[in-house]
Design goal:
CATH superfamily of the largest domain: D-amino Acid Aminotransferase, subunit A, domain 2
Distance between the termini: 21 Å
Shape: globular
CATH class of the largest domain: Alpha Beta
CATH architecture of the largest domain: Alpha-Beta Barrel
Helix content: 25-40%
Radius of gyration: 21 Å
Oligomer: single chain
Number of domains: 2
Structural class: alpha+beta
Number of strands: 18
Number of helices: 8
Order of helices and strands: EHEEHEEEHHEEEHEEEEHEHEEEHE
Bound molecules: pyridoxal-5'-phosphate
Strand content: 25-35%
CATH topology of the largest domain: D-amino Acid Aminotransferase, Chain A, domain 2
Largest sheet: 9 strands, mixed
């Protein structure tokens, strides 16, 4: 099944010189392309009304359910421009499938993965001049999302749902070189418990992470680390990135899935590291193993990963009353940087796509 999508070109697109100026210094999440994609769902009609129109504000009834009960899910992915000018996305069907899993958890109707990918492709094609040159790790960040758009204050799954895709040019995550992060271990707040929404990509998880992030910032740290709810002992992930630990003997550990978000970067790294001959363990990983492993030198590198930053080295872990720093405090570790380069090279078409991860948009 393919979606019927009508396209109405914006009557006021940005001029070429405005676009060039924005792409020279896009930052993150500030500027948006000329168009957006919209699709609606009702029980009677199913998914319908697929359209690409001028980017602009929505008009919502104040009783719109998402504003009250946070029935919402979203995705984050990027389009990359290769040296020959072609435009590609990275494993988009994985984002599409993850949205169906999130939709299930949030009691939304399922949008077929093929329709998700088609919607993203068509928006990127229409706004292709907004995909920056790949040099300097620029990209077009793509934000598909689904909201309960029914105006109704009763608590039940919405009978009117809206799926949209918007896109925003993004600069390199690290300006002036990759720099290790300092992380704050929160002992007051948790992210997700068993049976909760931890594995769904939903705004509520981000809302609940903000106060912990404030605590991290107040303690001079860049990001916050969450532990499991049940025992307060096992490392889960950061607010929006998964974690990896590299041992001196070459094996690599990443927390198992269940209550964490199943990162597409995380799963790509499992395959990349295995191909390089590293044994990868997905298991429960305790905060004591982290502290003691880094202190003893058994753990030689720690890094976080996600679409926005790709791979981010971690230098220091702080908590209330202490801190531990690895060897790679000022500079990223060698495997961290190798994996980062391997991934980025595949995404920008500078290395052979041995895993078949890249999807050509145009
Ligand atoms: C999106 C996200 C990640 C990273 O997932 P990627 O698919 O690699 O971008 C990790 N943790 C959380 C909580 C997220 O929302």
């Amino acid at each position: 099944m393919t979606l019927d999508i009508t396209t109405t070109a914006s009557d006021s697109p940005r001029s070429e010189s405005e676009v060039a100026e924005i792409l020279a210094n896009p930052g993150f999440g500030t500027y948006f392309t000329d168009h957006m994609f919209t699709l609606e769902w009702t029980p009677g009609e199913g998914w319908h009304g697929g359209r690409i129109t001028k980017y602009g504000p929505l008009s919502l009834d104040p009783a719109t359910a998402v504003l009250h009960y946070a029935q919402e899910t979203f995705e984050g992915m990027k389009a990359y421009r290769h040296a020959d000018g072609s435009i590609w996305t990275f494993r988009p069907e994985e984002n599409a499938k993850r949205m169906t899993r999130s939709s299930h958890r949030l009691a939304f109707p399922v949008l077929e993965p093929d329709d998700f990918v088609q919607a993203v492709d068509e928006l990127v094609q229409v706004d292709q001049r907004w995909v920056p040159e790949g040099a300097g790790e620029k990209s077009l960040y793509i934000r598909p999302f689904m909201i309960a758009s029914e105006a109704f204050l009763g608590v039940r799954p919405a009978q009117h749902v809206t799926f949209m895709v918007i896109a925003s040019p993004a600069g390199a995550y690290f300006k002036g070189g990759v720099k290790p992060l300092t992380l704050w271990l929160t002992e007051d707040y948790t992210r997700a418990g068993r049976g909760g929404m931890g594995a769904a990509k939903t705004g509520g998880n981000y809302a609940s992470s903000l106060v912990a992030q404030q605590e991290a910032t107040a303690n001079g740290c860049d990001q916050v680390v969450f532990l499991d709810v049940a025992e307060g002992k096992y490392v889960e992930e950061l607010g929006g990135m998964n974690m990896y630990f590299v041992y001196a003997d070459g094996h690599v550990v990443t927390p198992e899935t269940g209550t964490i978000l199943e990162g597409i970067t995380r799963s790509a790294i499992i395959e990349l590291a295995q191909k390089k001959g590293h044994q990868v363990e997905e298991r429960k990983f305790s905060i004591d193993e982290w502290r003691e492993g880094v202190a003893s030198g058994d753990i030689t590198e720690v890094f976080a990963c996600g679409t926005a930053a790709v791979v981010t080295p971690v230098g220091t872990l702080k908590w209330d009353g202490g801190e531990v720093s690895g060897k790679a405090t000022d500079d990223a570790g060698p495997l961290t940087m190798e994996i980062r380069r391997d991934l980025v090279d595949i995404q920008y078409g500078r290395a052979d796509d041995a895993f078949g991860w890249m999807h050509r948009v145009c």
